[in-house]
Amino acid sequence: MLSIGELSRKTGVKVPTIRYYEQTGLLAAPERSGGNQRRYSTAELERLAFIKHARDLGLSIGDIRELLDLSAHPDRPCTDANRIAANHLATIRDKIARLQQLEAELDRIANGCHGERIENCYVIESLSNHALCKTPH
Predict the structure, then answer these.
(1) Domain containing 107: what range?
(2) What's the pLDDT at 113?
(3) Which of 2, 32, 38, 112 has a beta carbon 3.0–4.6 Å from 122's, enabling a disulfide?
(4) pTM confidence score
């Protein structure tokens, strides 16, 4: 059995986050020692590692909850898990595309500034006049 501090060290999840996951039901309330300390089993360690990995990949708490529910039924097809992953991948790709547009526009603005004074600064002028932008963002 692990204390909350040991669980935190082994998973890299901060203690307040572990408590939050307990409050939201992602982690079951742990057993308590005679001194009322939380005590975690290997199963809870593995569940928290799953949650951490999913969060590191950017999955929402709702998606993680659904994936955890699915994992409790190993005989079911994995189409729902695949759907969750595919939807998240599409969201990430959309964010990447939008960030690439922002990068291109900011690069253009930053490299377009050749003024020596703010009154001739292309950065300030571009931020003041959206019509000077070349790409939607």
Answers:
(1) 79-132
(2) 79
(3) 112
(4) 0.80
